[in-house]
Amino acid sequence: MLDLLTIALEAHSEELNHHRRYEVSVGRDLLGDWVVWVHYGRVGQPLRELWFTSPDAEEARALMHDRLRRRLSAPRRIGCAYRLVGLTAGQGLDARTWVPGSLLAGLLS
């Protein structure tokens, strides 16, 4: 798969003993379909992996937005917020088309 965009998030709370990592990657497979990979789990442990494919870029984009939006509700759900720790965009890819500024701002605050 050709990774076009990867976003890495982490949530840490010493009091609650939460140390979580969440990564979302999007790219294309050999057949030209869009693939969204999700890796998640406890920091320092092997991450679990889910992946979704779609021939439609809009469907892949919507799935990525949904997954990232869910991370914004983490303070209410798990007691600590996810923070952006890495964003890698492939050459020629505008990350703003895949991750809206408002969503990115919520992960940076």
Write the layout of secondary structure elements.
Elements: E1 2-13, E2 18-28, E3 34-42, E4 48-54, H1 57-72, H2 74-78, E5 82-89, H3 95-98, H4 101-108
Antiparallel strand pairs: 1-2, 1-5, 2-3, 3-4
Short description:
The protein is α+β, with helices and mostly antiparallel strands and 109 residues long.
> By helix and strand content, what is the structural category?
alpha+beta
Count of discrete alpha- or pi-helical segments spanning 4 or more residues: 4
Specify the helix fraction band: 25-40%
Q: For this entry, what is the oligomeric state of its chains?
A: single chain
**Order of the strands making up the biggest sheet:** 4-3-2-1-5
Give a description of the structure.
The protein has one domain (2-108). The protein is built from 4 helices and 5 strands, in the order E-E-E-E-H-H-E-H-H. The chain has helices at residues 57-72, 74-78, 95-98, 101-108, and strands at 2-13, 18-28, 34-42, 48-54, 82-89. The protein has a 5-stranded antiparallel β-sheet. Strand 2 (18-28) and strand 3 (34-42) form a beta hairpin. The longest helix has 16 residues, at 57-72. It is globular and about 45 Å long. The mean pLDDT is 88.
Tag the structure with descriptive keywords.
single chain, 109 residues, alpha+beta, 5-stranded antiparallel sheet, 5 strands, globular
